[in-house]
Amino acid sequence: MIEAVMIWNEPNNLSHWDFQIDDGWRIFADLVKTSSAAVAAERPGLRRVLGGMSPIDPEFLRTLDAHGAVEAVDVVAIHGFPLDWNHWQIDEWPDKLASVQAVTGKPVWISEVGVSTFGAEEVQQFGLRRTAELLDGRAERVHWYSLYDLPRAWPATTRHREAEGSSYYRHFYMGLLREDGTPKLALRDFAGCTPALGLCQWFHFEDHRLDSAVRWMKDLGVRHLRTGLSWADSFRPDAQAWFDRQMKALEPFDVTVTFCFTPESLGVRPHHTSPPRDVRPFAEFCASQVRRYA
What are the phi and psi torsion angles at 215 (to 5°)? Predict the structure, then answer.
């Protein structure tokens, strides 16, 4: 069921890792090395993926490599959203991928790529078709983000929220399905790209969409799925029961599970993006979940 473990998410994005606290990503590199070793001890051969970088930045990878973090993983990952947030055009995808491949001998996965329907559903439809065409055969894994729109009652995790203008609101329209579960125009196009094109779908704690998501993914022919288990959520009451339910439901797919988000009580500051004061409890969390599900 679990084909890979991803260590954190977008560590060079301030919305996911506070690199103002961790100047130079030294704590993050230590977290990667410690947790990667813990995962390998539990399941030798399970692929370990460096959290997908966003923006795509070869210099960031060189920084982590200098700290020994790249050596500790099997795969490097990148994220790109050129029609929504990045300052480059969609046709630059092959060059962006090649810029990272040029500085590492590791396989490079595209663990998030997507297009919002904030402006029009036709934009997403074009973006999906063009992305699939541009990336065909260039990466072992490409995960489309995402299946569902983000419910408006769940604020998107960003630094500045509404102060970001339309960039913030685009988070809510990244799905192939609307919040109410009705299909958008690009859904049929996506079905024509599976199983080569995988999917990235995050599930919130006790997410009511889990069972319907599984049905949709089976119908769409999804084989490769990326999702996450939150270290911060593990401190909630009955957290392991929810994790068990989630991972049981996802057994039909080849899952890359992302471990991330710091419990407030364990951070340098009380926030889920904060580096932890001690990286070892995170490594223990990763090991315990691999032991349970892999």
Answer: -65, -45
Statement: residue 162 has pLDDT above 70? no
Measuring CA to CA, which residue among 243, 247, 252, 245 is closest to residue 217? 252
CB-based contact 4:48 (threshold 8 Å) = yes
Contact 87, 135 (CB under 8 A): no
**Roughly what angle, to the nearest 10 degrees, separates helices 26-42 and 280-293?**
30
The dihedral built from the CA positions of residue 119, 16, 5 and 212, taken in this order, carries a sign that is negative
Whether 74 and 34 have beta carbons less than 8 Å apart is answered as: no
β-pairing, 198-200 vs 254-260, is unpaired
Q: Which of 47-51, 149-153, 168-172 has the highest mean pLDDT?
A: 47-51
Q: Name every residue whose Cβ is closer than 8 Å to that of residue 79 and which is 6 or more positions away in sequence.
A: 10, 52, 53, 54, 56, 110, 111, 112, 113, 145
Judged against a pLDDT cut of 60, whether residue 159 lies above it is answered with no
Residue 128 · residue 189 · CB < 8 Å: yes
What 3-state DSSP class applies to 37?
helix
**Contact between 230 and 200 (Cβ < 8 Å):** no
Q: How far apart are CA 14 and CA 20, in angstroms?
A: 8
Q: What is the maximal distance between C-alpha atoms in the chain?
A: 48
Do the Cβ atoms of 40 and 48 come closer than 8 Å? yes
Q: Give me the phi and psi of 253, to 5 degrees please.
A: -115, 160
